[in-house]
Amino acid sequence: MLLLWSVALARDATDNWIARTEIPVLIHATASEVRDRDGHLLRAYTVEDGLWRMALSLDQVDPLFLDMLVAYEDKRFFDHAGVDTIATARAAWQGLRAGRIVSGASTLTMQVARLLEDGSTGAWRGKLRQVRLALALERRLSKAQILQLYLELASYGGNVEGLRAASLAWLGKEPARLIPAEAALLVALPQAPESRRPDRHPEAARAARDRVLARMAGAGVIDAETARVSLRDPAPQGRRAFPLLAPHLADRAVAQGPGRHDLTLDRGLQRRLEALARTYMAGRDGRLSMALIVADHQSGEVLASIGSPDYSAGEGQGFVDMTQALRSPGSTLKPLVYGLAFDRGLAHPETLISDTPVQFGSYAPQNFDGRFRGELRVSRALQLSLNIPVVRLTEAMGSAHLMAALETAGLHPELPKGGAPGLAVSLGGVGLSLWDMVTLYAGLANGGEVRALRWRAEESEAEGARLMSPRAAWQVGHILAGLAPPPQAGPRGRVAYKTGTSYGHRDAWALGFDGRYVAGVWIGRPDGTPVPGAFGGDLAAPLLFEALGRARAEPVPLPAPPPDTLLVGNAALPPHLQRFGDVGAKRPGLRLTFPPEGARLAADPRGVPVKLRGGVPPYTLLADGEVVATRLRGEALLAPVSGPGFTTLSVIDAAGQAGRVSIELR
Questions:
Q1: Measured between alpha carbons, how far is 419 from 624 in angstroms, rounded to an integer?
Q2: Is the Cβ–Cβ distance between 309 and 277 less than 8 Å?
Q3: In Å, how far are 22, 145, 147, 225, 389 from 18, measured between CA atoms?
C-alpha cells in the first residue's frame, strides 16, 4: 500500500511539475513572401537578424522526407509522450559500459524544445529542461504540430532555418517533391549544420547524406537498389540564390504589410522578360535604366513588371522603380488626342489637316524635324507623329479637356509647379508614369473603356470608365497598326504601337497592343539627364516587340471595326469633316522671302522662282495684277514670267493675306 501511495504521489508531483512548465513562444516570424498567379514564389524576405525562415505546412513536404526524418531521428516518435524511455535506457546502459556517451536519446520533441529555447544539449540541467518542456509540449500539441515546429526551426547552416528555406538554399527547389538523395541530405544537415554546410564542407555533407541513405535502406524506408543508385546522385557544392523576381513590385506589396502576397504576375513570363531586359541593356551606357510592363488588356491584369534591368545600387540606380517614376511621355499622348477628336466630331482619319506654321498667342509649335508638310490626312499626321496637327486639334477641343480625359482614365498627370494645362500637354508637357501610360493604352485596346491595372490577385476587376467610343478607339488602333514594325522585330503579327521621345532626349518610349496584350517600355536615365541620340523608335520599340512576342504563343489579331465606323475616303466624308478648320489660330503673316524687293534678275524662260513663309495654303500667284497660277502649295513657287522689264509679283493665301514684291528682269 505504501508503495502504491508513493507511486501515486510521485505521479501527481510529476504531473504538477509538467503542468507548471512555462511554454516558450510557439509562433515565430516567417519570411514575407510574394507569389505569382499560380502560387509560385517570386521573392521572399529575411526575418529578424537576417535569418531565412519560411512558413511551411506538412502537406507541402514530400512524404518520403517525413518518413526518413522519423526513421532516422526518432522511430518511436508517434508512440512516446515526448521522451523515448527505451532509447534513454539504451543510451544510459551504453554510456555506463563505455564510460562515455555512445548514443543519444533525444527525441524530435526534445529537439523542438531545444530549438524553442535555443538551449544546449550537453549539460544535464539543459537536458532536464528539454525533457520537462518536451513532456509539456506533448500534452499541449499534436504530433503534427510538434513536427511542423521542427520543420520551421531546425538549423540548416548559416542563416538558414527550417526545411523550406533549406530546400531552396541548398537544392533550389520547394520541398514538396524530393528525390531520395535530396531528402537524405535534408535529414542529415540539422545534426551538424555548420560542419556539414554544402557550401563550405561539401564532402562532409555528402558523407552524412550517404549514411542516412544506408540507414534508410536498412530500415526499409527505401529499397537497397534505390539507396545504391542515390549514392551516385551529385550532392550540392554551394548555395542557391533565393528567388528574386519582380523585386520592385514585390517591394510595393510588402510595403502594405508582412505576410503572403499573391500577385497577378506570370512567373515564367516575368523570368523571360527580366532576362530579355538584361540582355537588351547589356553593353549600353551604364547610367541608363529601363522599365517594362506587360498586361492583359481584357482583364486588366499585369502579367510582368520590370522596374529596372538590374536591381542594384549602381550608376543606373536599379533600386528605383521606373514604372512609377513621373516622366514626360513625349508623343505617346498623341493617340489620345486624335481619339478624342474623332469622338467629338472634330476630325476623321481621312480628314485633311494643315501642317504649316501656326501660332497660338505666344506659342508657335514646331515639328520634331523642323519641316512642314502642308496639307495631309489626319491618319498620316498621327503616323508621322507631327506636332503641329495635334496641337491644332488640342486647341480646338481645349487642353483642359485633355487633362480631364487623363483623370477620367484614372491616371495621375502632374503639371510643372504652378503651371496650368497648355497646348504643349499633347506633346508630352505633363508628368506621367509608365504604369499610367500602359493603363491608357490598355483602354485604347479595350475599345475605349479604361480601367485600373490589377496586380494583386485578391483585387476584383475594377469598374471601367468610358474614355472614348469603341469606334474612335478602333480608328486610333487601326492607324497605329499601319506603322511598319522596327526592322529588328521580325514577324510578330499586327501591333498597334506608338513611340515617343521627350524634350531633350530624356525619355524614349514605346507602347503598343494586339488583340489581347498591351505593353509599354521606357528607357532613359533616372536622374533625367538627356541621352543624346536616344529616340523611342530606335531604342524602345524593338524591346516592345520582343516583349509582346514573349507574352504570346501566337499573334493575337486586332479586332474588326465596330458597326458604326465610317470607312470612306475623304471625298465621301460630310463637308465639315473633309478639311479640319483652324479654330482660334493666328498665323504668321504671309511674307515673300525671295526675290527681294527691287532685285534685278536674269530673265529665265522657265519663270521666276518665288519663296514665301507663313500664310494659309492654297496660294494664288499674280503678275502685274493678273492671276498666273492657282491652288499652289508649299513654300517654293514658280511664277511663269519671263520678262524682260519691270514686274510686280503678288501672292494671296487662303485667308486673304498678301505679299508683294517688285523686280526687274533683264
A1: 51
A2: yes
A3: 9, 19, 20, 46, 86
Q: Is residue 302 part of a domain?
A: no
For 121, which DSSP code? S
At residue 92 the predicted structure's pLDDT band, cuts being 50, 70 and 90, is very low
The catalytic site residues sit at 73, 331
Q: What pLDDT score does 656 carry?
A: 64
Regarding whether 599 and 560 lie in a shared domain, the answer is no
CA dihedral defined by 133, 139, 142, 143, rounded to 10 degrees? Answer: 60
Q: Does residue 120 register a pLDDT over 70? A: no
Distance CA 345, CA 577 (A): 8
Q: Which of 196, 230, 264 is the last residue of a domain?
A: 230
Q: What's the number of domains the chain is made of?
A: 3
Instruction: Write the CATH number for 336.
Output: 3.40.710.10
Range of the domain at 441: 330-578
Beta strands in 444-494 (DSSP E): 449-450, 465-466
Q: Each residue of 243-300: pLDDT tens digit?
A: 999 999 999 999 999 999 999 999 999 999 999 999 999 999 999 999 999 999 999 9
Interatomic CA distance for residues 261 and 429, integer angstroms? 37
Taking only the tens place, the pLDDT of each residue in 576-586 is 899 997 544 45
Indicate left, alpha or beta for 385 from its phi (over 0: left) and psi (-120 to 50: alpha). left
Is residue 140 within 8 A of residue 32, CB to CB? The reply is no
C-alpha cell at 89: 535506457
Q: Give the CA distances from residue 648 to residues 54, 412, 590, in Å, rounded to whole numbers and listed in that order.
A: 91, 58, 16
pLDDT at res. 30? 94
* The last residue of a domain, from among 201, 230, 259: 230
Query: Which residue's entry shows cell 510538434?
Result: 146
For residues 595 and 572, membership in a common domain is answered with no
Alpha carbons 618 and 632: distance in angstroms, whole number: 5
Q: Residue 639 corresponds to which cell in the numbers above?
A: 511664277
